[in-house]
Design brief:
The complex is a heterodimer of chains A (90) and B (225). Helix content of chain A is 18%, strand content 42%. Chain A is of the alpha+beta class and 90 residues long. Chain A has one domain: Ubiquitin-like (UB roll) (Roll). In chain A, β1 and β2 form a beta hairpin. Chain B has a 5-stranded antiparallel sheet with strand order 5-6-7-8-9. A 4-stranded antiparallel sheet of chain B has the order 1-4-3-2. Chain B is globular, with a radius of gyration of 21 Å. The chains are: A alpha+beta (90), B alpha+beta (225).
């Protein structure tokens, strides 16, 4: 399962997708993630080794996340992505 | 610096302090923290761009409004603009406001906090989790900068510089997941969500973490120590 955990309201808003989503669902996932980024959210991915990366998008063709580190692709199945706006405090 | 130039500069500094004094009288609950930002509005190729015809034309406070902006005191003069940070003068009032605002969140916020804590647990080690349960804070050393971060629930994150003699305080960094309530440390979401945001941004993009967070020096009332 691919889980999108959005820190935008108390208790978080979550969206789930199958590990191997249909082309239509993949488009939905890509739109969801790019929509979040347009709204000012920063998306973080925790990979298999426990490292946290910032993601820059979702690749529909390979069902993987594009990460900030050298544009590396990380497989999306079984992943958890956390989205937060990260607002400056006073 | 020539005498004439110095006298002109002194005159304008006096005018600035008078304006700041007026501001303090109008806003007794705010303290001016220091120079936040200064920038030149004219081309640097002009001779003496800031000195000629200086006069302080505006003084205003930008209200926090929207999602979490800091209070900024803007002083504009022809050619230059200065921004000074204004923060609540009394940390006890901030703490009182934080408790009142957080308490009014009710059961929904409590359930959200429990859920956020479960999420945080998946991102940190067992030792860090134990520390968070016992002290509401845990530490993590950055692999990039070697800075030691102290993530605290409900308060700004503290950054320390490590040296052979020990750790020295470097800066307080205030970041929220979704805005904050002015005159308090309370975020719009539960406090562990703020901790998660700070932790993930530090791990994935430390430079951006510093760029996004509000900075507090050691004696700032907003540091929450």
């Amino acid at each position: 399962m691919i889980l999108l955990d959005i820190l935008g309201e108390p208790g978080h808003k979550q969206a789930t997708f199958d590990d191997d989503p249909s082309p239509k669902k993949r488009r939905e996932l890509a739109e969801e993630v790019s929509g979040l980024m347009k709204d000012g959210y920063t998306c973080f991915l925790k990979d298999g080794s426990g490292e946290d990366h910032k993601i820059t998008g979702y690749d529909i063709m390979t069902n993987s996340w594009m990460t900030l580190v050298r544009g590396e692709l990380v497989p999306a199945p079984q992943s958890v992505v956390t989205a937060s706006r990260a607002i400056q405090g006073g | 610096m020539s005498d004439e130039l110095w006298n002109t500069a002194k005159k304008h500094f006096v005018a600035l302090f008078e304006l700041l004094e007026k501001f303090k009288q109008e806003h007794p609950n705010l303290a001016i923290l220091g120079l936040h930002e200064a920038y030149e509005l004219v081309s640097s190729t002009e001779p003496d761009p800031g000195i000629r015809g200086m006069s302080f034309s505006s003084l205003r406070v930008k209200s926090p409004g929207g999602r979490g902006h800091c209070y900024t005191l803007k002083v504009s003069i022809p050619g230059y603009s200065f921004r000074l940070r204004a923060v609540p003068a009394d940390p006890a009032i901030c703490l009182l406001n934080t408790v009142l605002m957080t308490g009014s969140g009710g059961g929904e916020l409590l359930a959200a906090e429990r859920r956020a804590q479960e999420k945080l647990r998946g991102h940190i080690s067992e030792e860090q989790w134990t520390s968070y349960q016992l002290t509401s804070a845990f530490t993590e050393q950055s692999k990039r900068s070697n800075l030691l971060y102290l993530f605290r629930r409900g308060f700004p994150t503290l950054a320390f510089k490590s040296s052979p003699e020990g750790n020295n305080f470097f800066m307080g960094l205030c970041l929220h997941a979704e805005g904050y309530e002015p005159f308090s440390w309370a975020g719009r979401l539960c406090s562990t969500d703020d901790v998660i945001t700070a932790l993930l941004l530090m791990r994935s993009q430390e430079k951006k973490f510093w760029a996004k967070a509000g900075h507090h020096e050691l004696h700032s009332p907003m540091l929450g120590i």
